[in-house]
């Protein structure tokens, strides 16, 4: 794989920031495998270095078809927001249009896409994940399912953006999950929460002769307000 590695000189004056972001991206990608959210090289992760609101910056992405445990600091792969490769020589993930669409439409600085099994199962059953738990509020509300489209296509990216309207996560029909956040940790945590909620709903709905109770939208709104003050201050 050494002949495919990007030249360190390509990183220019942003070397330190890019190197740190790449290290964090690779760690997050490996975590998706360790936590069972992807198998092999399925799924992908990206992080934006510099720029906000869909303008400026470089998007570092996992490369296509390379096991995450083989990635090294020299394998940094990056594109501009137009999709032009500006760092490295490894081919970027085939889902690059999906990631770039999120960055263009939101202030996100990180995107995580997985093929998590419970979430993917739910994507085949409903149009929207039932409100089985209040943590749906952490994703902006009821999680929608984006209609199926071929992976890597502009159609999939457009479908995902519609499902993400007002949300920080969605399901992709017969495909997986997509979440974004202000950093890799937040984007990953939202993916993990989404997979957990899908597993919860599948478990509860599988009990014979019983139907899970669901939260109302008013109850979810109350939790949304409460979450604004969650965590440590300062």
From TrEMBL:
This is Class II aldolase/adducin family protein. The keyword Zinc does not apply. Transmembrane segments: none annotated. Keywords: Lyase, Metal-binding. Signal peptide: none annotated. One of its GO terms (cellular component) is cytosol. The keyword Lyase applies. InterPro entries: Aldolase_class_II_sugar_metab, Aldolase_II/adducin_N, Aldolase_II/adducin_N_sf. GO terms for biological process: pentose catabolic process. It comes from Streptomyces lasalocidi. GO terms for molecular function: aldehyde-lyase activity; metal ion binding. Residues 23-202 form the Class II aldolase/adducin N-terminal domain.
């Amino acid at each position: 794989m050494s002949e495919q590695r990007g030249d360190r000189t390509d990183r220019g004056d942003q070397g330190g920031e890019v190197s740190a972001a790449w290290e964090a991206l690779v760690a997050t990608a490996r975590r998706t495998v360790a936590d069972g959210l992807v198998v092999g090289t399925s799924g992908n992760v990206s992080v934006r270095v510099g720029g906000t609101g869909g303008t400026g910056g470089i998007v570092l992405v996992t490369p296509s078809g390379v096991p995450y445990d083989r990635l090294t600091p020299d394998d940094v792969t990056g594109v501009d927001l137009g999709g032009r490769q500006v760092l490295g020589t490894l081919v970027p993930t085939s889902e690059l249009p999906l990631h770039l669409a999120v960055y263009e439409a939101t202030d996100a600085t990180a995107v995580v896409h997985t093929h998590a099994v419970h979430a993917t199962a739910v994507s085949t059953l409903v149009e929207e994940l039932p409100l089985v738990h209040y943590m749906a509020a952490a994703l902006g509300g009821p999680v929608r399912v984006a209609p199926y489209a071929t992976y890597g296509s502009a159609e999939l990216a457009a479908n995902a953006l519609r499902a993400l309207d007002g949300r920080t996560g969605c399901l992709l029909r017969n495909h997986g999950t997509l979440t974004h956040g202000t950093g890799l940790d937040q984007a990953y945590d939202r993916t993990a929460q989404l997979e957990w909620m899908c597993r919860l709903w599948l478990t509860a709905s599988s009990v014979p002769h019983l139907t899970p109770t669901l939260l109302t939208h008013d109850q979810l709104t109350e939790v949304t307000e409460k979450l604004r003050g969650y965590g440590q201050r300062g």
